[in-house]
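== Folding the chain ==

***
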Amino acid sequence: MCSATFRSGEFAKYQQEAAVKEPCDRHPEVRFITDPYQRRIVHGNLIGKQGQGFEIAMCNLNDYRFNINNSSLNAAQARIHNPGEHLKVRKQCDKSLDQFQI
């Protein structure tokens, strides 16, 4: 059971500081833009309590691990049952997969 708690809106103030990058073959990833020379964090900007960051991250990972596995299994099952659409949509080297020689 997770003991790390924080309000749901606490991440909202950091949304403007995040850069979203969408790789061509994976899900979007978010990287927070910070000043490398600024090592101190204002106490009011902390999420949770001081020293609790790793625990919060691990709790979130554990909460989403089940959802990530289900999403992956559902996507794999869909590809097995209907490969044709995936071959037309999925691109590699600027060509759809159905254009490659089998």
In short: The helical segments are 53-81, 83-89. Residues 1-9, 12-20 have pLDDT under 50 and may be disordered. The beta strands are 18-21, 29-32, 91-92, 95-96.
